[in-house]
Structure formats: C-alpha cells, structure tokens
Specification:
Layout (H helix, E strand, L loop, with lengths): L2 H11 L4 H23 L1 H8 L10 E3 L5 E2 L11 H47 L3 H6 L2 H44 L10 H38 L1 H6 L3 H27 L1 H26 L4 H43 L19 E13 L2 E14 L3 E5 L6 H6 L9 E6 L2 E2 L5 H6 L1 E4 L10 H5 L8 H10 L3 H5 L18 H15 L3 E5 L7 H15 L3 E5 L3 H6 L2 E6 L2 E6 L1 H7 L1 H28 L1
Parallel strand pairs: 5-10, 5-11, 8-9, 9-10
Antiparallel strand pairs: 1-2, 3-4, 3-6, 6-7, 11-12
Helix pairs in contact: 2-4, 2-6, 3-11, 4-6, 4-11, 6-7, 6-11, 7-9, 7-10, 7-11, 10-11, 15-17, 17-18, 20-21
Length: 619
C-alpha cells in the first residue's frame, strides 16, 4: 500500500473528530500568530522603550507599505510606550497560553480518539480472522502490531501532531513577519528551502525503512517471550533456561542493532539543520550590516528580524524530527492495514443466511481438504463420505496425523473444504452465516482453555446475562459444583491464567459445564483424559456422558469407554475413512482398528476386566 493511501486511511479515522481537529487547528494557528507577534515587539522595545531619547513616539511594528502601529491594538487610554508594550506582551502571552492549552487538548482528543477506533477495528479484524490466519502469523507478531505499531501511530497522531501544528503555524507567521521586517534581505532564506526539503525527504525514507525493521525485531522478542512464559513448565522440565536466555539475548542484540540503525538515520537530521541554519544566519549578519550602514534598516528592526530568523530555525529543525515520526507512523501502519485488509479463506458468502436449528443430519459428501502454504499444497483429507443423523455419536479413531482433528474442524468452519461439500440438513455450510452455524456447535477441546476470570464467567462464557442458578445447574451436571463450592469465593473465585489454580480434571469439568450451558445440539469433543489420575478421569468420563446425552456428537476418541459408547466408529487412515461400524464389527473387519485396539485400547480393556476376574476368584 502506498504512503498516500495510508495517509488517506489514517485521516479517514479522524472523520468522527473533525470538529475537535478543526478547532485545534484554529487555536494552534492563534498560538503561532501570537508567538510571532511577541517577536515583532522586539522592534518597538529597542527603538522606543529602551531608547528614551528617541523623538519617535509611534510604536510601529512594521514600516513602509505594511505600516502598522502597536497603539491600534491596545486601549486608547494607554499612552506611555512602556505601558503599551507591557500590556501587549502580557495579554498576548496569556492568550497564547489559553489557546495552547485548549488546542493541545483538542488535537490530542482527536488523535487518541482516532487511534482508539483504529485499535478497536484492528482487534475486531484479528479476532474474526480464520484459524489459518493464526497459523500463518506468530503470536508475537500479532501482539507487536496491536501494541507497538499502534503505539507508534498514536504518538505521531497525538503528541507529535500537536507540536507539529504549533510549530507549523509559528513558522508560517514568523516567516511572514520576517519577510515584512527584512524586506529583500529575507529572500536570502528562500535559497535554503530546497536543501532543507531534500535533506528531510532523504532522511525520512531511511527512517521509515529502519523503523519497520526495528518493529520486526521487537515482534521477534515478543514471540520468544510469549513462548517461554506460556511454556515455562516445559522450559524448566528440560532445564532449557540457559538456552532460552541465549536465544533471547541474541534476539535482543538484533533489536539493539536495528534500533541503532534507526537512531543513526534520525540523528543526522538535527545536526544537518544546525549547519544549514548557521550558514543562513552568518550570511544574514553579513548582509544586514551593510543594510544598517546604508540606513535601509534600523537596529531594532534588524534585531527583530534576526530573532525571527532564529525563531524560524527551531521549527525547521524540529520538522525533520516530525517528519521522521510521521514516517515511523506510516511504516508502522503498514502492518496494521495489512492485517485489516487480509482476506480470509473462511468468510460469509454474499447471500449467506442464518440457520436457526439442527433437525436432520450432517453429511460429508466426497470432502477433500488441503493446507496451502509457501511450500505448496498438502492434501490432508480426500474422498470423505459420511452421514451422521441427529442424536448419533460418531467416534473417530486413527493414528496420529491421519486427519481426525482437521475433519471435525470442518464442521464449525474453522476451515473450509477445498473439494466436495459438507451439508447440514441438506444445506452447504458455506451458504450459512458463520455465527449462526457456530451457535449450534459446542466444543470441548483437548487443550482446555480457561480465561483469567471467575469460575462463573468461565462457565457462562458468551452468555454474561445468564442467571447464576443455570450456571450452577450446568456445573452440577458436569460434576463440578462440589469442588467449586469448596473454593474460597465459590463461583466468584478467579481461576488464574489458563486455569492454573485448578487441577487438570477440574479444568476439564469446567469446560464441560461451559458446553452444557451453551446447550448446543451438536458437540465436538476431543477427549483428553489420558493425563488425568484415575479418580479425576472417572469424574470427567461421567461428566462427558452427561454432556453427550441427547446430542449429535463427533468425538476424537482416546478411550475404549468412549469408543464403546459411540453409535458408530469411523477409522481415519491417511486422510481417508477406511472403515465405519461398531466396536465389535471393526474388530473383525478393519486391520487398522485391530492394531489400534491392541496398541491403544487393549491395556484399558484388560484393566477393566481385572476387578471382575478377582471377584470371580474370590467367589
């Protein structure tokens, strides 16, 4: 996206704050005018106030065709030159202060407001992205865009913009007054304008490039931080602290070098403006001396002119810094708008309609799915045909990497099929609104996701207004009410990040309670009880039985008990369903299922028969 388009989009976000922005421009223009006016007062001060012997009592600000007297701006009862100048100086300073305060507040109001809207839009855009987006972009990169890139733009569009407007109008009015005061002498400054603009543009391009590089390196650090902090137990278990510290230090050094490159590009602008300004001042002093000797200028006017030129120097020097800040903001906005504009592979079609209920069946009709990446296309599922009537429990079993999780992720459209159709009550799910489809589907994932919030809010996630009694009822059915009641704050207890204050079984039962409260007719269950102790597993299995009752269930099975509860079992092998049937049927007809049973389920079956055998011996 070009720089002009980015600027246009940034200004588009300011449309809601146009009134505040216009008012701030007017007020800061007044600041610039009053600031320049105080410089012009130097002429009357030197020519009249500090020169009592001067016969001239007219406090002229400008002479010649632009003649203007200070007495025209003050009340008529002020006659003494000192009184007139003092009044003008104090009043102009007070007015400048008022306009400066109000203008700065309003421009920051508009700047912070537009950035808040942009941050909201960016977060909403990222949150609505498909699963593939989060597979493509690292978490650190996404966080860096939401936090650091937005911060860069915010700084430029609030603090920097406020000072820029003030300095811009100071430059305009001071330059105008300098032209009037210096006459032909002032036109010497014009020869320096192309040099200043050319230098600023060249430095700005370098700053934009180095800033983007630095932001990328900062995202790399944030990605390492996210991985090591969220995975701190694995780091400790493998004693990888030294390795991760080394990795972090290397990334920090890369950021250090990138920041130095950015500073190197920015730091040259101020000394460059200093040199240009010094040359201009020296040249003006040389020419001004000749003008005074000839009587074309008096000392007071020339001194006011030189002060005005010095006053011009500060905005010109700062403009290079402002330009650098705006270039940094444009560079940072690149990722922001890129994330906003990225096209999802999964999105609502133009004429998609909402689905309100599930009444019939889910059918996979010759479904194929491939992952697309920079390396190319990789087919994961091919020729999947399966019909699941309402109320049926289908268990998917198969070796790791066979495509079981990908298959069930097609149902809520976390991914879209790349071939064939997935039908819900005879309607292609791609013709249904995504939100309405997902309201019909409950999920209990293998990795239990809980938020750093209360137990109640975790169970009632997505339903903040649901009564507490319904939350408790869902918890009872999920066999979670007893341990929740034993907590210090009960349902108001904060569970910690990812529920770290709870055991694995307790987290599972909260997730089951959440699915129960949603009461969706379709359930996707990635059963994960292998890491639980025997007691917790039995409670979770009982809770799962309650959850599955009366629902259409797609379950990735890891336990024999779940397999046996299924109406049918589908064997997934190398991206295809190779067999469908009951447990007993598949033991005779599917070599893959026989092998899985021997490797994965046989020990569980033997363990379940041991108590019965011992009871038989005792009898």
């Amino acid at each position: 996206m070009s720089g002009v388009r980015r600027i246009g989009r940034l200004l588009f976000y300011g449309r809601r704050y146009a009134l505040q922005a216009i008012a701030s421009v007017v007020l800061l223009a007044a600041v610039g005018l009053l600031d320049a006016f105080r410089v012009v007062l130097i002429g009357p001060i030197f020519n009249t106030v500090l020169n009592p012997k001067s016969p001239e009592r007219d406090l002229s600000l400008f002479s010649g065709r632009f003649h203007f007297s200070l007495q025209q701006l003050v009340p008529s009862h002020f006659h003494n030159p000192w009184t007139v100048v003092a009044y003008a100086l104090i009043v102009s300073t007070v007015l400048k202060g008022i306009c400066d305060y109000a203008g700065t507040y309003l421009v920051n109001y508009a700047g912070f407001g537009m950035i808040t809207d942009m941050r909201d839009d960016l977060y909403q855009a990222i949150l609505r992205r498909s699963v593939q987006f989060f597979q493509k972009h690292a978490t650190g990169t996404i966080l860096s865009t939401i936090i650091n890139d937005i911060e860069r733009v915010q700084f430029a569009m609030s603090s920097v913009l406020s000072e820029f407007l003030q300095q811009f109008f100071t430059l305009i009015f001071t330059a105008w007054f300098a032209l009037i005061l210096g006459g032909k002498l002032a036109w010497v400054l014009v020869i320096f304008i192309p040099v200043v603009i050319s230098s600023a543009r060249r430095v700005g391009r370098s700053v934009r490039h180095t800033t983007r590089h630095g932001q990328d390196k900062l995202a790399e650090i944030q990605n390492i931080l996210h991985e090591t902090i969220t995975g701190n137990r694995i780091v400790k278990a493998f004693t990888m602290e030294r390795w991760e510290t080394t990795r972090f230090k290397e990334a920090a050094r890369r950021l250090f070098r990138a920041n130095l490159n950015s500073v190197r590009a920015q730091a040259i602008s101020s000394p460059l403006m200093d040199v240009i300004g010094a040359i201009a001042i020296v040249l003006l002093l040389l020419l001004g001396r000749e003008q005074i000797n000839k009587g074309a200028l008096n000392v007071g006017t020339f001194f006011a002119f030189i002060v005005a030129v010095f006053k011009l120097y500060d905005p010109v020097r700062k403009f290079a810094l402002f330009y650098n800040s705006f270039q940094q903001a444009l560079g940072a906005s690149g990722n922001i708008f890129e994330f906003m504009d990225e096209q999802d592979t999964v999105r609502d079609r133009a004429h998609a309609h909402a689905v309100k209920a599930f009444r019939g069946e889910i059918r996979l009709d010759n479904v194929r799915f491939s992952y697309h990446s920079e390396e190319g296309e990789r087919e994961v599922l091919s020729g999947i045909n399966l019909t699941v009537p309402r109320g049926e429990v289908v268990a998917f079993v198969g070796p790791s990497g066979a495509g079981k999780t990908t298959l069930v992720n097609l149902i809520p459209r976390f991914f879209d099929v790349t071939g064939g159709r997935l039908l819900l009550d005879g309607q292609d799910v791609r013709d249904l609104k995504i939100d309405s489809l997902r309201r019909l589907i409950g999920n209990v994932t293998q990795e239990t996701i809980l938020f750093n919030d209360t137990v109640r809010n975790n169970i009632a996630y997505g339903q903040p207004d649901v009564p507490l009694e319904k939350v408790k009822e869902a918890a009872r059915v999920a066999l979670a009410h007893d341990f929740i009641s034993a907590m210090p704050e009960g349902y108001d207890t904060v569970v910690g990040e990812k529920g770290f204050r709870l055991s694995g079984g307790e987290r599972q039962r909260l997730a089951i309670a959440r699915a129960l409260l949603k009461n969706a007719p379709i359930l996707i269950l990635d059963e994960a009880t292998s890491s639980l102790d025997t007691e917790s597993e039995s409670l979770v299995q009982a809770a799962l039985s309650n959850l599955m009752a009366g629902r259409t269930v797609f379950v990735i099975a890891h336990r024999l008990s779940t397999v046996r509860r299924a109406t049918r079992i589908a064997v997934v092998e190398a991206g295809q369903i190779t067999a469908v049937g009951s447990h007993e049927e598949l033991l005779h007809t599917s070599p893959m299922y026989q092998r899985l049973y021997q490797l994965q389920f046989a020990d569980e079956a033997d363990a379940s028969t041991e108590p019965a055998m011992e009871a038989g011996v005792k009898a």
